[in-house]
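Lecture notes, continued. The same structure-token format from the folding unit now serves as the input rather than the output. Read the line below as a description of shape only.
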């Protein structure tokens, strides 16, 4: 499965950088990817106001791993947690 990757940045209320990628099915709109990003921020205790659409930008297309494919099939998206996230994967 090919997926679209949206490189996403936000800033927490205390100024900490939050960086994560939103993986979605190829062809998913930027608006929907941004909605998934905003929902993720809410789950980690940040407000959606700390993320603007200009900080959730299409980055590239890649082949999804089995884990990511399963998450996208189940939830329509996958969040790859990076800098400043509760459980960073890198």
């Amino acid at each position: 499965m090919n997926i679209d990757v949206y490189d996403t940045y936000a800033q927490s209320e205390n100024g900490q950088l939050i960086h994560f990628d939103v993986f979605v099915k190829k062809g998913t709109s930027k608006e929907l990817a941004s909605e998934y990003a905003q929902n993720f921020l809410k789950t980690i205790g940040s407000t959606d106001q700390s993320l603007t659409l200009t900080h959730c930008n299409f980055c590239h297309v890649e082949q999804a791993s089995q884990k990511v494919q399963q998450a996208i099939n189940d939830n329509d998206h996958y969040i790859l947690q990076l800098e400043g996230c509760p459980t960073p994967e890198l």
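Point for the exam: The first helix runs from residue 30 to 43.
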